[in-house]
Design a protein that fits this description.
- The complex is a heterodimer of chains A (about 120) and B (about 160).
- Chain A contains five helices and no strands.
- By secondary structure, chain A is an all-alpha fold.
- Chain B is built from six helices and two strands, in the order ααααβαβα.
- Chain B has a two-stranded antiparallel ribbon with strand order 1-2.
- In chain B, helix 2 runs antiparallel to helix 4 and helix 2 crosses helix 6.
- The relative contact order of chain B is 0.11.
- Classes of the chains: A mainly alpha (about 120), B mainly alpha (about 160).
- Chains A and B meet through helix 3 and helix 5 of A and helix 1, helix 2, strand 1 and helix 6 of B.
């Protein structure tokens, strides 16, 4: 984990303002919270897009996990420059993975049923 | 002709929206039930003084333990061991409180599942965009007639909502 020491801030920015800041300092809990919300937002958007485009079968099922993992990796490693230890990469990759997948399935099924049911 | 197109369009939308009413009903009922059970947990358990005091006890003990953990002095090691015992007791109390909360939630979920099963049993609530593996068909295609395994039953949607 990146452990840059920081002076105590007089007022902490909100999590969302911090999420856009490439130079922000992160605790593991804060980062996990942001990843949780990003994953769920991505799940809803992907489910709707997959349903509208008519993606079905295995490509649809495997597509979301791939998009989710790549997006989270890109966000944490490239955008935030968050340097984590190898044993924490698994925690970051798996944070809210299964619950966001269920959320994605729900949206995908609803849109698919609405358009092609 | 514009009016005809518009009326056809709105009829199309009405039919399309009607096909997802069972799905949306299940989702909405699940959301409401979770809100109610969490509300009940908050009022009966998490808002109580005993829960709040136990939580503060754990936070205090953890902070004190952190401050003495690095030290090699005999007095500090003894204090750390005592704090460990305090923490274990407090966490055990917290665990029993949380178990009550879990029980309330479980009873709510099981009751809701029974009710929804009776409403939607044998009904096709949605269409899956994939064909489920044979192992899952008992859940996704429960009590639905026919061999079209894309047709979805209430059980699978309810599980996804949880």
């Amino acid at each position: 984990m990146s452990t840059k020491t920081t002076p105590a801030a007089a007022s902490q920015p909100s999590l969302w303002v911090k999420a856009m800041d490439r130079n922000a300092e992160w605790t593991k809990d804060e980062l996990m919270d942001v990843i949780f919300y990003i994953r769920f937002a991505l799940a809803a958007v992907s489910g709707i897009i997959w349903g509208i485009l008519g993606i079905t079968g295995a490509p649809g099922l495997l597509g979301f996990p791939l998009v989710s993992l790549v997006s989270i990796w890109f966000y944490t490693a490239k955008y935030l420059g968050y340097e984590d230890e190898p044993d924490q990469r698994k925690d970051i990759a798996m944070e809210a993975f299964f619950s966001s997948f269920a959320f994605f399935l729900l949206f995908w099924i609803i849109v698919h049923t609405a358009l092609r049911g | 002709s514009v009016a005809q197109c518009q009326s056809r369009g709105s009829a199309f939308l009405t039919i399309r929206m009607a096909s997802i009413i069972p799905l949306l009903t299940i989702v909405l009922i699940s959301i409401v039930s979770v809100l109610i059970s969490e509300g009940v947990n908050y009022l009966l358990i998490y808002r109580t003084d005993s829960y709040q005091n136990t939580k503060k006890r754990i936070e205090r003990s953890e902070k004190k333990k952190e401050s003495v953990s690095g030290s090699a002095a005999k007095k500090d090691r003894k204090k750390a061991a005592q704090l460990d015992d305090d923490l274990k007791r407090a966490k055990k109390d917290m665990q029993s409180v949380r178990t009550k909360g879990t029980l309330v939630t479980s009873v709510a979920l099981i009751s809701l599942f029974t009710i929804m099963n009776s409403w939607f049993d044998g009904e096709i609530v949605g269409r899956l965009p994939f064909e489920p593996i044979p192992l899952l068909r008992a859940v996704t295609h429960r009590n639905i007639l026919g061999e079209d395994f894309h047709l979805c039953a209430v059980t699978f949607i309810y599980i996804l909502c949880q």
